[in-house]
Structure formats: structure tokens, C-alpha cells
């Protein structure tokens, strides 16, 4: 099984350890994991802002870069959603690129869903109470809900707890937090309070945007809750500082 790991911009720039954790987990399936050097932004910020021409300009080289792999795995629900759901929409009126986009969409999968579907054996230990935050993209675009929780259940010593009103957005929403900062700040404050009220000592998610947003608010609230990408926890890589901890 040959897998292309589409790392995503936020993992590449802010949390490379998530990429290494993803490689470790995928190689645990016996897969050959390739990180194509030509990968760039998937175009999601431009797409969300309505600049469809720029989104297509970014999508075309990425589609070609990721072509030919048996699987394309993404440690980000929002980026996976872009490849799976929105690339075919972007090229609805360009038959040649539409065919390529549909092929990529069929081969692409969010990381936790891919691991669960391929029977990943999780060999990790984490003593504590862990809450899972589902990004809007994972929940609504990809319907990825049960898979990460099934993987977390396999972690020795871990107790899962539920976040109140878990389906509510954290307020990041890509460019939403830039366009509507006051509304975004209120939303992430509510989300951080819900995380604290859950009794969790650790928060995980499959989307770096959400994690950076919530971790920043938890830090400003002086909460001791630690924040990790789910790949880091599943790979047993929580000895390193959590997201935002380096600045505490």
C-alpha cells in the first residue's frame, strides 16, 4: 500500500510533529508513506473567501502532485474536505480537470478515518481524561465522528469524556475568525469553557486550525488543559509540549 501524506499548511508551518506522528501511524499499517515535495496549499483560504480563480490555480498543481497514489491521507478534516468535497465543485465546468479532481477525491481520506478503516493497531498509553473536538469539516463535510473515538478507546489508560454542545463550532472557520473577530472570540470562549466543564485534562482534534484557536483561548484563561493533535496522542508523542505550551 503506497500512501501520499498531504501534510497541510498548518501542520507544516506550526506543528511538524503531527506529520511525523501521521507517518508513524501509517507505517504501522505496513504502508509505504511518501510526502510529495511538490505539495502546496490546497487553496481552501482562497475558496472560503470566494476567490475561485486563485483556488483553482492552487488546486491544479496539487492535483497533479498527488495523482497516481493508491491513497492520499490528510491529517486535517478541513483540507481533506477541500479535496473530497470541493475540488470536484471547483472544476465542474472543466471536464479534464473535473475527472482528475474526482479521481483524487475518491482516493483521499482524513487520517483518523483511514486508520480506523484499515484496522490500525494503536500501541500508546495516556493516563488521563481526554475530550475529542470534532471540527465542522470533519463532522459535517466528511461525517467523521465514530472513527477517532474508536481509536482513542484503544489507548491504554485513557478515559474519554464528552464536550457539552460538541457540535458547536469553535469560531475558527478559516477566514471567518479574521472577518468576524468579535463573533469568533465569543465562540471560542464558549468552546474553551465547555472543554473545561467536561473535566478533561487533555483536548485532541484532527484539525490544527481548531486546535490553535482553542489552545490560545485556554492559555488566556490560564487553564491547565493540554492540547494535542489526535495523531500525536495515538502515536504516543505527548511527552513533548502541547500546542501553545511553548509560550506559557
How is this structure best described in words?
- The protein has helices at 9-14, 16-27, 44-48, 52-65, 77-90, 95-107, 111-117, 136-141, 146-152, 176-179, 181-197, 208-220, 230-234; strands spanning 2-5, 32-34, 71-74, 108-110, 125-133, 156-161, 202-205, 226-229.
- Helix content is 50%, strand content 15%.
- A four-stranded parallel β-sheet has the order 2-1-3-4, with helices on both faces. A four-stranded parallel β-sheet has the order 6-5-7-8, sandwiched between helices.
- The chain is globular and about 50 Å long.
- The termini are far apart.
- It has two domains: 2-115, Rossmann fold (3-Layer(aba) Sandwich), CATH 3.40.50; 124-247, Rossmann fold, CATH 3.40.50.11810.
Describe the structure in brief.
The protein is α/β, with parallel strands linked by helices and 248 residues long.
Strand content: 5-15%
- List the helices and strands in order: EHHEHHEHHEHEHHEHHEHEH
Number of helices: 13
> How many DSSP E strands?
8
What is the rounded distance between the termini? 41 Å
- Average pLDDT reading: 94
Proportion of residues in helical segments: 40-55%
- Sheet bearing the most strands, described? 4 strands, parallel
**CATH architectural group of the largest domain:** 3-Layer(aba) Sandwich
Number of structural domains: 2
Shape: globular
**CATH class category label of the largest domain:** Alpha Beta
Helix/strand/pairing category: alpha/beta
Radius of gyration: 17 Å
CATH level 3 topology of the largest domain: Rossmann fold
Q: Give unreliable regions as ranges.
A: none
Q: Order of strands across the widest beta sheet? A: 2-1-3-4
